[in-house]
Design a protein that fits this description.
This protein has 638 residues and is of the alpha/beta class. It contains 22 helices and 18 strands. Helix 21 (565-593) packs antiparallel against helix 22 (605-635). The longest helix has 36 residues, at 242-277. The protein is flat and about 110 Å long.
Length: 638
């Protein structure tokens, strides 16, 4: 159990939090929420020991194992993805190397040395078994697959992985290590919808301590059983998920406002008494008593958890044609068409005024669709048609990185061409994105990552275009900023194409989905849960969308004969063989764990060596069959 009491932390004159006390332990899955710049990351770093508090203390038991996932990671090279993940099982891998070394020494030893080595081998084997060593590699492969890694990527060098995939490797390593306390800062930022759903299932069943920061309401609701809100320099704890938190917070704020109103009335009555009898000698003692009471009064301050509701005023773009973008039988590939086919026979249309969300696993082709739409990629067959009078603007995370740190917020916003045309007040526009009052005079370099993302969004939305493409706009945003984005998209007068893993945002703003999976892109009217929750998608076939409603071309009816029938039979045989091999592993493991094999004055060294060899061979066969099963399963899309 980690406990913290009286924690305070400031940077210069700015106090992030004060008098924070909390407990983290088994069964407590806690979500930390609050606005950008309130100190959530700083509080996490104080709790795990990266930073020291200005006051207060954190008690961490000596044997407490803490796993921490930060927002930014150092570059890791020199290992493969699988080797990097296996660092999370250092105790197991260390024992495996020890057992291997003892096996080699045992083959050469004789006499009393052989007896000593046999005892050491038996002890190491027993510890290895207790730690679940025989299953750890299979668990590492399972976690990587759950986080969206193709089996072929497990042995890719870390140096080839992008920042988002490196973050997934770090998350896989943490999950494999199974620490006593897991602390994560925005774990869903680089995940797709499939991987977020998988991670939800893992963490909802997490038996140990868990503390995480997230802006994803659905993720918080599925995982957390407690909420910590950091607002007004204080931390308030609520029991339950996000929905219970919202209700409990409103009740607390209502009670707080009522108490503050009553106190204000009493203060006003007291001040009127003082003013009326200030100069009356017979009332002097009572007046002084009331003056002292007011000086000692602890005034009730009503918390302000978020910015007030913003009103958005966007420049009206020119009217585009009814069909803004249309894909007709498009097949796309990179490397001038010589590379792997990414999308095949894609046909759908985006109509004026619609908000279309692209969903699907990473690497399925969502970004490829955007590149086709923006003209940065030419299809190898089919046609992409952009409608008449279509003005296009795109936003991705790189735009937040190219802001000029030396400019103020107002100066940076003024770099958008034509942003102050007409009677538009730029300060009022920036206020709708949370930059109120003196905040527009802050330097961009002094903003938090989420505030910079919010400023980049404000710049992108300020352009009078009728087609806006947003690629993961919620990364690094806090919950109030996500609300700002949601309101802005609902008020936006043009057409929006949105890529995001935030299912709450999709349900709130999108009126149709394009599901990108297995080289196909299928348009769905509305926002079906079966698309947002891929576990259900994979469990049962999806109904085809109505071509008359979606604009899709009518597809050929499926063949009655399953084209993957032979592959499924191979998968079934491989699974059965793998199970049989695991049974053999358990049998050889039991033989090695038998004390009678090593004890007694007449230990049969040949029998021990034979048992070790049989066990090693069984493990190798089980690993080969597991790899075959994973390959076949991946080919079937499972």
């Amino acid at each position: 159990m980690l406990t913290a009491s009286g924690l305070s932390r400031s940077f210069g004159p700015h106090t992030l939090f004060e008098d924070v006390s909390l407990r983290l332990g088994d069964g407590r899955r806690i979500a930390l929420v609050g606005g950008n710049g309130t100190g959530k990351t700083t509080l996490l770093e104080v709790l795990v020991g990266i930073q020291e508090p200005d006051s207060g203390a954190v008690h961490r038991p000596r044997d407490l194992r803490i796993g921490y996932l930060p927002q930014e990671l150092p570059t890791e090279t020199g290992r493969t993805v699988f080797q990097q993940v296996m660092l999370g099982a250092e105790a197991v891998t260390g024992l495996a190397h020890e057992i291997e070394a003892l096996g080699h020494e045992l083959a050469e030893a004789a006499g009393s040395e052989s007896t000593r080595l046999l005892a050491a081998y038996g002890e190491a084997q027993s510890r290895f078994e207790q730690l679940g060593g025989y299953a750890v590699e299979a668990e590492a492969h399972r976690i990587l697959s759950g986080l969206g890694f193709d089996p072929a990527d497990h042995n890719r060098p870390m140096g080839e992985m992008s920042g988002g995939w490196r973050m997934r490797v770090a998350l896989a390593r943490l999950l494999l290590s199974a620490p006593d306390l897991l602390v994560m800062d925005e774990p869903t930022n680089h995940l797709d919808v499939d991987s977020v759903a998988w991670l939800e299932q893992q963490l909802a069943a997490w038996p140990r301590g868990l503390l995480f920061v997230s802006h994803d309401r659905d993720f918080i609701d599925a995982v957390a059983n407690r909420i910590l809100e950091l607002a007004g320099n204080r931390v308030t704890e609520y029991v339950g998920g996000f929905a219970e938190f919202v209700l409990a917070r409103e009740e607390r704020l209502a009670a707080q406002r009522a108490a503050a109103t009553q106190q204000s009335r009493r203060v006003a009555d007291t001040e009127r008494f003082i003013e009326r009898f200030r100069y009356k000698a017979t009332k002097a003692r009572q007046v002084q008593s009331r003056v002292k009471a007011l000086e000692k009064l602890d005034r009730i301050v009503v918390d302000q958890p978020g910015d007030p509701k913003a009103r958005f005023g966007f420049p009206t773009p020119r009217r585009s044609s009814r069909v803004v973008a249309e894909f007709e039988g498009v097949t796309a590939s990179y490397d001038d068409g010589d590379g792997e086919i990414v999308l095949s026979d894609v046909s759908f249309a985006v109509e004026r005024g619609r908000t279309v969300a692209l969903v699907g696993p990473n690497g399925a082709g969502k970004t490829t669709l955007v590149k086709l739409m923006t003209g940065r990629l030419v299809p190898i067959s089919g046609r992409v048609t952009i409608g008449t009078n279509v003005d296009l603007s795109t936003f991705d995370q790189l735009q937040a990185e190219v802001l000029d740190d030396r400019r103020t917020v107002l100066e940076e916003a003024r770099t958008v061409p034509g942003v102050e045309q007409g009677n538009r007040n730029l300060r009022t526009y920036l206020a709708s994105f949370g930059f109120r009052g003196d905040a527009v005079d802050r330097l961009v370099g002094d903003l938090s990552g989420g505030e910079q993302t919010r400023l980049a969004l404000a710049k992108a939305l300020a352009v009078p275009v009728n087609l806006l493409i947003l690629d993961e706009p919620t990364n690094h945003l806090d919950l109030p900023s996500c609300d700002v984005l949601e309101d802005a998209l609902l008020a936006y007068p043009g057409t929006v194409v949105l890529i995001t893993h935030d299912r709450h945002l999709i349900r709130s703003v999108a009126d149709s989905l394009v599901e990108v999976r297995d080289g196909r892109a299928i348009l769905h009217e509305g926002v079906p849960d079966r698309v947002l929750y891929p576990a259900q998608v994979l469990a049962k076939p999806r109904p085809k969308p109505d071509p008359a409603r979606s604009g899709l071309k009518t597809e050929k009816p499926p063949r009655r004969r399953d084209p993957n029938q032979a592959l499924r039979r191979r998968l079934k045989r491989a699974e059965k063989a793998w199970e049989e091999a695991e049974t053999v592993v358990l049998a050889t493991q039991a033989a090695l764990a038998d004390p009678g094999l090593y004890s007694g004055p007449s230990t049969d060294h040949a029998a021990v060596r034979a048992a070790v060899a049989a066990h090693d061979a069984a493990c190798d066969r089980a690993a080969d069959l597991m790899a075959e099963w994973e390959t076949l399963n991946a080919r079937l899309g499972g």
